[in-house]
Amino acid sequence: MPAFLKIEDFSCGYEKFVLKNINFETERGMLTGIVGPNGSGKTTLFRGITGELDVKSGCVFLDGKSVHSMSFREKAKHMAVVSQHISATDITVEDYVLMGRLPHRKKLRFFETSEDYTIAYEYMKLTNVFHLKDKFMSKISGGEQQLTNIARALAQQPQLLLLDEPTSHLDITHQVQILNLIQKLSQEMNLSILMIIHDLNLAGEYCDYLIMLNDGKIHKKGLPEEVLNYKDIEDVYKTIVVVEQNPVSKKPAVFLVSEKILKQGNGSRI
To answer: Could you tell me the residue ranges of all domains in the chain?
Structure first.
């Protein structure tokens, strides 16, 4: 199957930090996780893909077309970004989700059409926030805000969904709810998803493919069981871990070891 998202010899960044020679590709409908320690370049990669940062070299192709040759409106029709920071202002959930229809609005059209409402309602129901449509964003929980944020991104009807730590600051109930939804979107809607995620256990359990960044470069990429091994995790995160197989899903599970236990074991690996 040909690559849907293809990144070739890609470099972007800032004066003091540059992502270098990033190469990877994913298929349509694949849920790809971006992992790595703070400062490794995960958010920089997202900003480079969307064009928020100037490209120093290389290309990003979406379904065979260069992303950086697209206009802002065309780009917004093809990809949507779900940020970890949500502006919880006094706007209703319904109006917030309808903002996702702006890239599809024709010139000199200032109001939503019935089609816009139909599409927005469809994704509000899919993300289970339709019952909140008349509530203000500032009055709903963090988990509900994130689900609404995903509904707004889906209302853009993108081919590629980029999520920046979608489960950050959420309890385990909402983490599982959101990741189950994201997994469902990739499988049932054939939506390509690129997701920055800090929790290695969640990354291993939910993602089809992982890219581990370190110091602005790809340290390793592959299936979760190929990337999440104790040696690569310890090399990148500088933390001793134990990696075992989840007895139910057979996916890799990462266990931390406290300094106290390590000292009791005379520094040997458990």
So the answer is: 84-158
Q: Is 262 exposed, middle or buried (0-12, 13-18, 19+ CB in 10 A)?
A: middle
pLDDT (tens digit, 9 = 90+) per residue, 59-104? Answer: 999 999 999 888 888 888 899 999 877 776 789 999 999 999 988 8
Q: Return all residues near 89 (Cβ < 8 A) that are at least 6 apart.
A: 136, 137, 138
Give, for 235, the enclosing helix (H) or strand (E): helix 230-237
Q: Is the pTM of this model over 0.85?
A: yes
pLDDT tens for 205-231 read: 999 999 999 999 999 999 999 999 999
Strand 5-13's sheet: what is its strand order?
Answer: 18-26, 5-13, 55-62, 65-66
Residue among 54, 58, 95, 52 nearest 72 (CA): 52
